[in-house]
């Protein structure tokens, strides 16, 4: 079984380019493997020698930005935007949503002014399965110890937040 999915904000052209890049990664890195998963910035490609169209909430990757912000207001803003995308993605087209939110004021002139976040589930999940998957990891960003950005990828869903724009819509 094989499948791919692009992030909900990608055009069909960017999606095709991403999937082609993921395919080349598989061919060069795992030419004889009976299964592989590749997560690119914009798409996910997977193939296995078994059926995998069932929800799987196992975390496969937690990526944390090395920059930190210990301001409690910033952390509250992160919690709010993550909760927002986690709750909205299961209701959205392609089980996807993105959001921006102003950051609470800080005394530092170098503090970020906007948070950017998105969440998406794989398209074979039902809305309730998507909600369960994202909810299972909705606080995993806290493992990143005050990072200003984080990506949490499970087998069936993921979310990301950053202090810079990284999506198209």
TrEMBL record:
Keywords: Antibiotic, Antimicrobial, Disulfide bond, Fungicide, Lectin, Mannose-binding, Plant defense. Residues 1-52, 56-166 form the Gnk2-homologous domain. GO terms for molecular function: D-mannose binding. The keyword Transcription regulation does not apply. It holds the Pfam family Stress-antifung. GO terms for biological process: defense response to bacterium; defense response to fungus; killing of cells of another organism. InterPro entries: Cell2Cell_Antifungal (IPR051378), GNK2 (IPR002902), GNK2_sf (IPR038408). This is Gnk2-homologous domain-containing protein. It comes from Ceratopteris richardii (Triangle waterfern). The lineage of its organism: Eukaryota, Viridiplantae, Streptophyta, Embryophyta, Tracheophyta.
């Amino acid at each position: 079984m094989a499948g791919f999915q692009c992030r909900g904000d990608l055009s069909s052209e960017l999606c095709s380019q991403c999937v082609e890049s993921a395919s080349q990664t598989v061919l060069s890195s795992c030419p004889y493997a009976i299964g592989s998963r590749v997560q690119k910035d914009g798409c996910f490609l997977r193939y296995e020698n078994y059926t995998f169209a069932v929800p799987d909430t196992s975390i496969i990757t937690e990526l944390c930005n090395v920059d930190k912000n210990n301001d409690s207001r910033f952390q509250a803003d992160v919690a709010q935007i993550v909760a927002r995308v986690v709750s909205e993605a299961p209701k959205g087209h392609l089980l996807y949503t993105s959001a921006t939110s102003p950051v609470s004021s800080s005394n530092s002139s170098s503090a970020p002014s906007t948070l950017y976040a998105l969440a998406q589930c794989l398209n074979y999940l039902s809305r309730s399965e998507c909600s369960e998957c994202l909810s299972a990891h909705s606080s995993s960003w806290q493992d990143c110890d005050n990072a200003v950005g984080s990506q949490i990828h499970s087998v069936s869903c993921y979310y990301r937040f950053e202090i810079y724009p990284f999506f198209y819509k």
